[in-house]
Give the backbone structure.
Amino acid sequence: MPSSAAQLPMHHNSNSVKDDALVRRFTLAVVYAGTMQPARQGRRAAGAASLSMFLKTALTLTAVLAACQEGAATTNCKAGRCITIGSDSYCSDCALDAEAPINGACAVPSNQDVCVRVAGGRCVECATAAFMYMGGCYQPSTAPGNVMCKAATEGKCDTPADGKTYFVVPGATKTDQSVAACGDATTGVTIGGTKKYVGVADCTACTAEGLTTSAGGTAKCTTCNSGKIVKTDENGTTCIAEADCPTTNGYFLESGSPKNCKACAANCLTCTSAAETACQSCTANTYFLGAENGQAGKCVSCGDAVTGSGAWKGVAGCAKCTKPKTAGPATCTECASNYLKIESETTSCVDANACTGGFVPTTDSSGKKVCVSCGDKTNGGIENCSACTPIESPTTTVLVTCSACSQGKVSPGGSSCMTACPENSSEQSGACVCNSGFAPSGDKCTSSSANRSALSTGAIAGISVAAVVVVGGLVGFLCWWFICRGKA
């Protein structure tokens, strides 16, 4: 055998019979490649050809070693325990209890430079410069370990591989799996029996950003499978189709290749970026856009009377509102707990004790608390009314009963202010009072006896019928009596 072939480097993962056979085949292939060159080629050309054949043979050997074989024999994997790392198949649980996956291939860890302890066909503790993944120990310096991890210390991975297809599990030790696949959204890794760390479905690249040793969590996806984009919100990241990005409900498509679906600022329905001043519309009723129509701006809370967005501000204590026509305070439509007070074109939320001076606290037909102006016809009052009392259970838009008018006189029922008192009434201290024998009925005074008659019509009819029956019976009796007596 030529000395050049004998000195070629070889990497032994174990001292198993199968590996020795493969190495012998590899050596023979290299020897063959070095001795079968045409005699007419120069030494340099022959050496280059030998090296080329060596590399091809090395790749073939790597593929042979990487293939996971199921079965009960040595170096084989238990049925259903082959896993994929990168694009190749490796074992996670060896058929023989004395063997364990070392860099993905089942072998007896005689020198313990990768796997320190074995139990039931799996590694249960890794050497200092190795790390654990799904029952096996791997080295970051060689395939397939270098697909997952870039650097390992104390038997665990510290730095993920540059491809970021795996993330480092916080708090893992030399007896724990210390990396997880970015796309593993179900199995993941559980540390300490309670802290579970998982990836994101359809994710191909991620980071451990935001993960801590105090609790489990989900990796942050940065790239998804072809055809999907990353969606980011307050709950983390997911992989979705671009068409599924809800751009009319709090998200926007960030330009790039691929695009990303990102959340708008809080309470922003549509936006151009995540900046709070990039909102185009806001959560209806509780927020409004603090900008001129057609312009982007900040969403202002109906109750934010201090910060706002420049001159655009809310109303203290307001729960629901509408945007003002020009920069200024919003128009409150419902208070959080107090009474809604409307004065001219301004609104405020006041306590019941502050609802005085021509205003009364009450509740409208929808149950909303309102501080009603006695004279504001538009908002539950009565035109020209200056003093009033609330109606206990209003059934119409009128919420008060008037007791004094600024112009005119109070109607008999207190439902309006009149220029003159109606018939059968007289004015007393600015109010129309029904005369004796008459009672208020709307804006009029009607006869009390008429009311009683009207109310007792049914009773009178009943009495009349009864009287007729009684009289008829009496007449019949008398006739019988006299006829019978006459015959006697």
